[in-house]
Amino acid sequence: MADWNAEQYLKFEDERTRPSRDLLAQIPLSDARKVVDIGCGPGNSTELLVKRWPQAAVIGIDTSADMLRQARERLPGHSFIEANIAHWAPPAGTDVLFANAIFQWVPGHLKQLQRLLGALPPCGVLAVQMPDNFDEPSHVLMREVAQLEPWRKALGESARLRDDIPKPGGYYDALGPLCTRLEIWHTIYNHVLDDANAIVEWVKGTGLRPFLDPLEAPERKQYLAEYTARIAASYPPQTDGKVLLRFPRLFIVAVR
Q: Where is the Methyltransferase domain (predicted)?
C-alpha cells in the first residue's frame, strides 16, 4: 500500500482517540519508566501516554513516514522510530506496550502478541485495541464493490490484506498462560457523523486504503461513487440528518 496519510486520518481525531483513552484507563500501572506506543500514527495516542506518565521515556514506533512526521511535530521532545512491529523487540525494562488499532494489520498477530508479552518484565502491561468491524456494512461493502467490474481484477487481493480478528477465546488461550491478569472486552461505539460521505471520508483514512491505492484516478472515482451509494443505503439518516457509524472494537489488557 501507499504511505498512510496523516491529514486524512486526523479528520476524525477526537473519535479515533476515544478508544485510546478507554484502553489507557484500564491499565493498572501507576508508575512507568519506559512506555512504547506501537503504531503511534500521528501521535494522538502517544500524547495520552505522555500525560499519564510524564516522567517516563515514551517512544512511538510506526511504519509510516508521514505519520511519524506528524507525531514529531506534535511531540518534539519525544522519540519516534520507523520500524515494523514484526521485526521489533521492546527495549529492556519496558513497562507498557500500548497498541491502538494496529495489530489487525499484522499477519499472524497472535504470535506477535505472545512474543511481545513474553518480553515484558514482571508486572509489565500489554494493552491492545483492535477494530472488530470486519462484518460491519462499512467493510462488507468495500469487498462487495471490489468484486464488481471494472475493479475485480485490480482489487482481487485487496480483501485479503486484513483478516478478521479471532474471537476473544483465541486471545485468552494464547495470552493467558503468559499473564498474571488478563482482561478482554468489547465496546461498540456509535459515532455521530454528518452523513454517508463522512463515513466514506472516515474509512478512506484506514480500511478503504487497500481498495483505493491500486486504482488509477478514473477507476478510483467510480469505485468511490458506487461504494458511497451503498453506504448511504446502509446508514440511513437519523431525524436530524446525521448518521451513526456503528464501530465495534476489541480491547485486551494483559499483565505479565
A: 35-118
